[in-house]
């Protein structure tokens, strides 16, 4: 990863002010700013990545809004703690009233989804998940493959441990934190897999 800012360290407030003046999205970890694409070692998302994110967003939008929740895609930041990192998840859902009035970033998501590719998978599964687990409100972390029909959902159980539930072709994906389910194929509708 290559740090972008000419300043060796930024406070969260400085990052937010600086990010507003940038054309590209930058993520913030431990006081250092990284181009989102630099973090992943790629120059942009694939069509499959984009289509899967939009399919998930489309499937969730109406049911979530009727529950008084918000669903956002790609361009909305989430902050993992007061002094913590800022990321741009592919899809996030918050049902917390504090996020309903948010204007710059979300702080209390119950579900975060990332679309995986070969260059992002390790980072999303390990480093990013470690940051997301700092969110007390988070109940589900969804990882969707862009190479094959496969969804992994990490859920926080009653013992405050994260459990993995994998889904594959022909199965119904269950998002328990928002009481929603859909066929896995809906997430891959009209998607040309890598």
UniProtKB/TrEMBL annotation:
What domain of life does the UniProt record list for this protein's source? Bacteria
**Which part of the chain is the Putative restriction endonuclease domain?**
12-174
CDD domains in alphabetical order: DUF820-like
Q: Which InterPro entries match?
A: Nuclease_put_TT1808 (IPR012296), Restrct_endonuc-II-like (IPR011335), Uma2 (IPR008538)
Instruction: List the Pfam families.
Output: Uma2 (PF05685)
**Coiled-coil stretches noted in the UniProt entry, renumbered to this chain:** none
Q: By what name is this protein known?
A: Putative restriction endonuclease domain-containing protein
Q: Which organism is it from?
A: Aliterella atlantica CENA595
């Amino acid at each position: 990863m290559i740090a972008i800012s000419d300043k060796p360290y930024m406070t969260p407030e400085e990052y937010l002010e600086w990010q507003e003046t940038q054309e590209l999205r930058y993520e913030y970890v431990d006081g250092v700013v990284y181009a989102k694409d630099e973090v992943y070692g790629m120059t942009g998302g694939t069509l499959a990545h984009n289509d899967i994110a939009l399919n998930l967003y489309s499937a969730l939008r109406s049911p979530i809004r009727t529950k008084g929740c918000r669903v956002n895609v790609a361009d909305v930041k989430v902050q993992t703690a007061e002094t913590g990192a800022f990321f741009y998840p592919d899809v996030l859902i918050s049902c917390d009233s504090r996020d309903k009035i948010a204007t710059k970033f979300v702080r209390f998501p119950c579900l975060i989804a990332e679309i995986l590719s070969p260059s992002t998978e390790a980072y999303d599964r390990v480093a990013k998940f470690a940051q997301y687990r700092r969110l007390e409100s988070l109940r589900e972390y969804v990882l969707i493959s862009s190479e094959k029909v496969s969804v992994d959902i990490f859920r926080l159980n009653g013992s405050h441990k994260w459990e993995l539930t994998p889904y594959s072709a022909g199965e119904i994906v269950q998002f328990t934190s928002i009481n929603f389910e859909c066929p896995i194929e809906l997430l891959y509708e009209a998607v040309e897999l890598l």
